[in-house]
Amino acid sequence: MSEQNCPLCNSTHVERIDRVFTDDIVALYDQVLTVDVKEYFSDTEFLEYYRCKECGLFSFIPSIVGDSLFYQRLNMFNWYYLPEKYEFKYCSQHIPLGARVLDIGCGAGAFKGSLPGRDYVGLEPHGESDPVSKESVLHMDIDQFLATQPELFDAVCVFQVLEHLKSPGDFIQRALSCLKPGGGFVVSTPSQDSFIGNVTNSPLAMPPHHMSHWPDSAFRQMTRFNLELEELHHEPLQDIHVPWFSSKFCEEQLKEQHPEGCKGGLIDMSPGFKALAEEAEKMAKQVTPIFSNPAWRPVGHTVIAVFTKKIVAGSVEA
Protein backbone atom coordinates (compact mmCIF):
# COMPACT_ATOMS: atom_id res chain seq x y z
CA MET A 1 0.00 0.00 0.00
CA SER A 2 1.27 3.48 -0.85
CA GLU A 3 2.17 5.96 1.87
CA GLN A 4 -0.86 7.74 3.31
CA ASN A 5 -1.07 11.41 4.22
CA CYS A 6 -3.46 13.13 6.60
CA PRO A 7 -5.94 15.17 4.49
CA LEU A 8 -5.76 18.04 6.98
CA CYS A 9 -2.11 18.48 8.01
CA ASN A 10 -0.50 16.28 5.33
CA SER A 11 1.45 14.30 7.91
CA THR A 12 2.52 10.75 7.03
CA HIS A 13 2.34 9.76 10.71
CA VAL A 14 -1.00 8.01 10.42
CA GLU A 15 -2.22 4.72 11.80
CA ARG A 16 -4.89 2.40 10.46
CA ILE A 17 -7.43 1.64 13.16
CA ASP A 18 -10.25 -0.04 11.26
CA ARG A 19 -11.32 -1.46 7.92
CA VAL A 20 -14.92 -1.18 6.75
CA PHE A 21 -16.33 -3.23 3.89
CA THR A 22 -18.37 -1.29 1.40
CA ASP A 23 -21.07 -3.98 1.21
CA ASP A 24 -21.73 -3.29 4.88
CA ILE A 25 -21.89 0.47 4.25
CA VAL A 26 -24.39 -0.10 1.44
CA ALA A 27 -26.48 -2.32 3.71
CA LEU A 28 -26.48 0.29 6.49
CA TYR A 29 -27.64 3.09 4.20
CA ASP A 30 -30.44 0.85 2.96
CA GLN A 31 -31.53 -0.35 6.40
CA VAL A 32 -31.33 2.98 8.24
CA LEU A 33 -32.21 5.54 5.55
CA THR A 34 -33.56 3.54 2.59
CA VAL A 35 -30.96 5.26 0.42
CA ASP A 36 -29.13 3.27 -2.26
CA VAL A 37 -25.40 4.08 -2.37
CA LYS A 38 -24.21 0.96 -4.17
CA GLU A 39 -23.19 2.93 -7.27
CA TYR A 40 -20.53 4.85 -5.31
CA PHE A 41 -18.66 1.69 -4.30
CA SER A 42 -18.81 -0.35 -7.51
CA ASP A 43 -15.01 -0.64 -7.73
CA THR A 44 -14.18 -0.52 -4.00
CA GLU A 45 -14.29 -3.55 -1.70
CA PHE A 46 -13.31 -1.80 1.53
CA LEU A 47 -12.20 1.51 3.06
CA GLU A 48 -9.36 1.96 5.52
CA TYR A 49 -10.00 4.16 8.55
CA TYR A 50 -6.97 6.15 9.69
CA ARG A 51 -6.06 8.40 12.60
CA CYS A 52 -3.40 11.07 12.20
CA LYS A 53 -0.86 10.98 15.03
CA GLU A 54 -0.04 14.66 14.50
CA CYS A 55 -3.45 16.39 14.47
CA GLY A 56 -5.76 13.56 15.53
CA LEU A 57 -8.04 13.71 12.48
CA PHE A 58 -9.80 10.47 11.56
CA SER A 59 -10.28 9.85 7.84
CA PHE A 60 -11.40 7.26 5.32
CA ILE A 61 -9.12 6.19 2.48
CA PRO A 62 -10.07 6.12 -0.29
CA SER A 63 -12.43 9.07 0.09
CA ILE A 64 -15.58 8.45 -1.93
CA VAL A 65 -17.53 11.70 -2.00
CA GLY A 66 -21.26 11.92 -2.59
CA ASP A 67 -22.53 13.86 -5.62
CA SER A 68 -25.46 16.26 -6.00
CA LEU A 69 -27.90 13.39 -6.51
CA PHE A 70 -26.84 11.83 -3.22
CA TYR A 71 -27.50 15.09 -1.35
CA GLN A 72 -30.82 15.56 -3.12
CA ARG A 73 -31.86 12.19 -1.71
CA LEU A 74 -30.82 13.22 1.80
CA ASN A 75 -32.62 16.54 1.46
CA MET A 76 -35.89 14.59 1.30
CA PHE A 77 -35.52 14.12 5.07
CA ASN A 78 -36.89 17.16 6.91
CA TRP A 79 -34.14 16.91 9.53
CA TYR A 80 -31.25 17.15 7.08
CA TYR A 81 -31.20 20.91 6.41
CA LEU A 82 -32.56 22.42 9.62
CA PRO A 83 -33.70 26.04 9.24
CA GLU A 84 -32.37 26.88 12.71
CA LYS A 85 -29.20 25.58 14.29
CA TYR A 86 -27.50 26.30 17.58
CA GLU A 87 -24.29 27.32 15.79
CA PHE A 88 -26.12 29.99 13.80
CA LYS A 89 -27.10 32.03 16.84
CA TYR A 90 -23.87 31.31 18.65
CA CYS A 91 -21.61 32.30 15.76
CA SER A 92 -23.60 35.42 14.89
CA GLN A 93 -22.34 36.88 18.18
CA HIS A 94 -18.80 36.78 16.77
CA ILE A 95 -19.67 38.72 13.62
CA PRO A 96 -19.95 42.51 14.02
CA LEU A 97 -22.69 44.62 12.48
CA GLY A 98 -21.85 45.80 9.00
CA ALA A 99 -19.56 42.84 8.31
CA ARG A 100 -19.43 41.23 4.90
CA VAL A 101 -19.99 37.48 5.46
CA LEU A 102 -19.32 34.48 3.21
CA ASP A 103 -21.14 31.26 4.18
CA ILE A 104 -19.62 28.30 2.29
CA GLY A 105 -21.81 25.22 1.93
CA CYS A 106 -24.83 27.21 3.03
CA GLY A 107 -27.67 24.90 2.02
CA ALA A 108 -30.71 27.11 1.60
CA GLY A 109 -28.96 30.10 3.16
CA ALA A 110 -30.71 29.81 6.52
CA PHE A 111 -27.78 31.40 8.38
CA LYS A 112 -28.69 34.75 6.84
CA GLY A 113 -31.68 34.93 9.18
CA SER A 114 -29.28 35.12 12.14
CA LEU A 115 -27.28 37.99 10.61
CA PRO A 116 -29.39 41.15 10.55
CA GLY A 117 -27.29 44.17 9.73
CA ARG A 118 -24.63 42.17 7.87
CA ASP A 119 -23.97 41.71 4.16
CA TYR A 120 -24.46 37.97 3.47
CA VAL A 121 -23.32 35.81 0.55
CA GLY A 122 -23.87 32.04 0.56
CA LEU A 123 -22.29 29.36 -1.62
CA GLU A 124 -24.04 26.04 -2.20
CA PRO A 125 -22.53 23.65 -4.77
CA HIS A 126 -25.37 21.13 -4.57
CA GLY A 127 -28.02 23.54 -5.84
CA GLU A 128 -30.76 23.82 -3.25
CA SER A 129 -34.01 24.17 -5.21
CA ASP A 130 -35.80 26.50 -2.82
CA PRO A 131 -33.29 28.74 -1.05
CA VAL A 132 -34.41 30.99 1.78
CA SER A 133 -32.95 33.99 -0.02
CA LYS A 134 -32.35 33.39 -3.73
CA GLU A 135 -30.57 36.69 -4.26
CA SER A 136 -28.00 35.84 -1.56
CA VAL A 137 -27.22 32.22 -2.46
CA LEU A 138 -24.88 31.40 -5.34
CA HIS A 139 -24.99 27.86 -6.70
CA MET A 140 -21.28 27.24 -7.12
CA ASP A 141 -18.35 25.74 -5.27
CA ILE A 142 -15.43 27.64 -3.78
CA ASP A 143 -13.24 27.25 -6.89
CA GLN A 144 -15.93 28.66 -9.17
CA PHE A 145 -16.45 31.52 -6.76
CA LEU A 146 -12.75 32.35 -6.57
CA ALA A 147 -12.69 32.51 -10.35
CA THR A 148 -15.02 35.55 -10.08
CA GLN A 149 -12.25 37.35 -8.14
CA PRO A 150 -14.50 38.38 -5.23
CA GLU A 151 -13.69 41.14 -2.80
CA LEU A 152 -12.34 39.94 0.53
CA PHE A 153 -14.83 39.23 3.33
CA ASP A 154 -14.78 40.25 6.99
CA ALA A 155 -15.90 36.78 8.05
CA VAL A 156 -15.99 33.35 6.42
CA CYS A 157 -18.20 30.65 7.90
CA VAL A 158 -18.09 26.93 7.15
CA PHE A 159 -20.85 25.02 8.95
CA GLN A 160 -20.90 21.19 8.78
CA VAL A 161 -18.81 21.10 5.60
CA LEU A 162 -15.22 20.06 6.35
CA GLU A 163 -16.20 16.49 7.22
CA HIS A 164 -17.70 16.02 3.73
CA LEU A 165 -14.51 16.86 1.86
CA LYS A 166 -11.78 14.69 0.41
CA SER A 167 -9.09 17.32 1.07
CA PRO A 168 -10.18 19.63 3.91
CA GLY A 169 -6.70 21.16 4.25
CA ASP A 170 -6.72 22.35 0.64
CA PHE A 171 -10.28 23.63 1.05
CA ILE A 172 -9.37 25.65 4.15
CA GLN A 173 -6.58 27.39 2.27
CA ARG A 174 -8.96 28.33 -0.56
CA ALA A 175 -11.61 29.54 1.88
CA LEU A 176 -9.08 31.71 3.70
CA SER A 177 -8.09 33.37 0.42
CA CYS A 178 -11.55 34.98 0.59
CA LEU A 179 -10.92 36.41 4.08
CA LYS A 180 -9.35 39.71 5.06
CA PRO A 181 -6.35 39.56 7.43
CA GLY A 182 -7.77 40.09 10.90
CA GLY A 183 -11.10 38.63 9.79
CA GLY A 184 -13.01 35.84 11.48
CA PHE A 185 -13.01 32.23 10.30
CA VAL A 186 -15.77 30.19 11.94
CA VAL A 187 -16.24 26.47 11.40
CA SER A 188 -18.38 23.73 12.88
CA THR A 189 -18.32 19.96 12.50
CA PRO A 190 -19.73 16.95 14.29
CA SER A 191 -17.51 16.45 17.33
CA GLN A 192 -15.55 13.23 17.59
CA ASP A 193 -15.05 14.11 21.27
CA SER A 194 -18.80 13.91 21.91
CA PHE A 195 -21.05 10.85 22.18
CA ILE A 196 -21.05 10.41 18.40
CA GLY A 197 -17.40 9.39 18.57
CA ASN A 198 -18.53 6.02 19.96
CA VAL A 199 -21.51 5.42 17.69
CA THR A 200 -21.60 2.10 15.84
CA ASN A 201 -23.53 1.55 12.59
CA SER A 202 -24.09 5.21 11.74
CA PRO A 203 -24.19 5.38 7.91
CA LEU A 204 -23.99 9.17 7.69
CA ALA A 205 -20.70 9.06 9.60
CA MET A 206 -19.16 7.25 6.64
CA PRO A 207 -18.69 7.83 2.89
CA PRO A 208 -20.25 8.92 0.65
CA HIS A 209 -21.40 11.37 3.35
CA HIS A 210 -18.59 11.97 5.84
CA MET A 211 -14.96 11.58 4.81
CA SER A 212 -13.46 12.53 8.18
CA HIS A 213 -14.15 12.81 11.92
CA TRP A 214 -12.97 15.84 13.89
CA PRO A 215 -11.66 15.82 17.48
CA ASP A 216 -10.70 19.09 19.19
CA SER A 217 -7.02 18.39 18.51
CA ALA A 218 -7.61 18.79 14.76
CA PHE A 219 -8.85 22.35 15.24
CA ARG A 220 -5.88 23.23 17.41
CA GLN A 221 -3.61 22.13 14.57
CA MET A 222 -5.39 24.48 12.16
CA THR A 223 -3.20 27.32 13.42
CA ARG A 224 -0.77 26.08 10.75
CA PHE A 225 -2.99 27.91 8.25
CA ASN A 226 -1.95 31.30 9.66
CA LEU A 227 -4.90 31.27 12.06
CA GLU A 228 -5.25 32.20 15.72
CA LEU A 229 -7.64 29.94 17.60
CA GLU A 230 -9.91 32.16 19.69
CA GLU A 231 -12.38 29.62 21.00
CA LEU A 232 -13.51 26.00 20.87
CA HIS A 233 -17.11 25.65 21.93
CA HIS A 234 -19.19 22.49 22.31
CA GLU A 235 -22.92 22.92 21.94
CA PRO A 236 -25.09 21.42 24.68
CA LEU A 237 -27.05 18.34 23.64
CA GLN A 238 -29.90 19.61 21.46
CA ASP A 239 -33.52 18.48 21.78
CA ILE A 240 -33.48 16.76 18.39
CA HIS A 241 -30.53 14.59 19.50
CA VAL A 242 -31.77 13.58 22.98
CA PRO A 243 -33.43 10.30 21.83
CA TRP A 244 -30.33 9.38 19.81
CA PHE A 245 -28.00 10.13 22.71
CA SER A 246 -30.21 8.17 25.12
CA SER A 247 -30.14 5.12 22.86
CA LYS A 248 -26.36 5.26 22.45
CA PHE A 249 -25.88 5.84 26.18
CA CYS A 250 -27.80 2.64 26.92
CA GLU A 251 -25.91 0.85 24.15
CA GLU A 252 -22.58 1.73 25.77
CA GLN A 253 -23.80 0.46 29.13
CA LEU A 254 -24.82 -2.85 27.59
CA LYS A 255 -21.50 -3.15 25.76
CA GLU A 256 -19.68 -2.93 29.08
CA GLN A 257 -21.93 -5.61 30.57
CA HIS A 258 -21.79 -7.94 27.56
CA PRO A 259 -18.54 -7.27 25.64
CA GLU A 260 -18.59 -10.78 24.20
CA GLY A 261 -21.58 -9.85 22.02
CA CYS A 262 -19.77 -7.06 20.13
CA LYS A 263 -16.85 -7.13 17.74
CA GLY A 264 -16.29 -3.37 17.97
CA GLY A 265 -15.41 -0.93 15.23
CA LEU A 266 -17.44 1.44 13.07
CA ILE A 267 -19.69 -1.32 11.74
CA ASP A 268 -21.00 -4.35 13.59
CA MET A 269 -23.55 -6.40 11.64
CA SER A 270 -23.43 -9.38 14.00
CA PRO A 271 -26.63 -10.89 15.46
CA GLY A 272 -25.24 -10.24 18.94
CA PHE A 273 -24.88 -6.52 18.38
CA LYS A 274 -28.28 -6.31 16.68
CA ALA A 275 -29.90 -7.81 19.79
CA LEU A 276 -27.92 -5.45 22.02
CA ALA A 277 -28.98 -2.40 19.98
CA GLU A 278 -32.64 -3.44 20.12
CA GLU A 279 -32.43 -3.79 23.90
CA ALA A 280 -30.79 -0.36 24.12
CA GLU A 281 -33.69 1.19 22.20
CA LYS A 282 -36.11 -0.21 24.78
CA MET A 283 -34.01 1.06 27.69
CA ALA A 284 -33.68 4.49 26.07
CA LYS A 285 -37.36 5.22 26.60
CA GLN A 286 -36.70 5.21 30.34
CA VAL A 287 -33.66 7.49 30.31
CA THR A 288 -34.77 9.96 27.64
CA PRO A 289 -36.75 12.05 30.19
CA ILE A 290 -33.60 12.35 32.30
CA PHE A 291 -31.48 13.74 29.48
CA SER A 292 -34.32 15.96 28.34
CA ASN A 293 -33.64 17.96 31.51
CA PRO A 294 -31.09 20.71 30.63
CA ALA A 295 -29.37 20.16 33.97
CA TRP A 296 -28.36 16.64 32.94
CA ARG A 297 -27.32 17.23 29.36
CA PRO A 298 -23.77 16.46 28.23
CA VAL A 299 -22.04 18.19 25.32
CA GLY A 300 -23.87 17.68 22.07
CA HIS A 301 -23.27 16.70 18.49
CA THR A 302 -21.42 19.81 17.24
CA VAL A 303 -18.19 21.63 18.04
CA ILE A 304 -17.62 25.23 16.91
CA ALA A 305 -14.17 26.68 16.32
CA VAL A 306 -13.65 30.44 16.08
CA PHE A 307 -10.42 31.67 14.49
CA THR A 308 -8.88 34.99 13.47
CA LYS A 309 -6.78 35.21 10.32
CA LYS A 310 -3.41 36.59 11.38
CA ILE A 311 -2.17 39.87 9.94
CA VAL A 312 1.22 39.33 8.39
CA ALA A 313 3.70 42.12 9.16
CA GLY A 314 4.55 44.12 6.08
CA SER A 315 1.39 43.21 4.16
CA VAL A 316 -0.72 45.94 2.53
CA GLU A 317 -3.60 45.21 4.95
CA ALA A 318 -1.28 45.46 7.98
Condensed summary:
This is Class I SAM-dependent methyltransferase. The protein is α/β, with parallel strands linked by helices and 318 residues long.
Please supply descriptive tags for the structure shown above.
single chain, 318 residues, alpha/beta, Rossmann fold, seven-stranded mixed β-sheet, four-stranded antiparallel β-sheet, 26% helix, 23% strand
Written account of the structure:
This is Class I SAM-dependent methyltransferase. InterPro entries: SAM-dependent_MTases_sf. With 318 residues, the protein is of the alpha/beta class. The protein has helices at 22-33, 68-74, 86-92, 142-146, 168-176, 216-220, 242-257, 271-291; strands at 14-21, 46-52, 58-61, 100-104, 119-123, 137-138, 153-159, 179-190, 212-213, 227-236, 299-309. Among the domains are: 73-206 and 223-237 and 299-309, Rossmann fold (3-Layer(aba) Sandwich); 241-296, no CATH class. It has eight helices and eleven strands. The strands form two sheets. It has a seven-stranded mixed sheet with strand order 6-5-4-7-8-11-10. Strands 1-2-3-9 form a four-stranded antiparallel sheet. Helix 7 (242-257) crosses helix 8 (271-291). The mean pLDDT is 92.
Task: Draw up the topology in text.
Elements (H helix, E strand, L loop, with lengths): L13 E8 H12 L12 E7 L5 E4 L6 H7 L11 H7 L7 E5 L14 E5 L13 E2 L3 H5 L6 E7 L8 H9 L2 E12 L21 E2 L2 H5 L6 E10 L5 H16 L13 H21 L7 E11 L9
Parallel strand pairs: 4-5, 4-7, 5-6, 7-8
Antiparallel strand pairs: 1-2, 2-3, 3-9, 8-11, 10-11
Protein name: Class I SAM-dependent methyltransferase
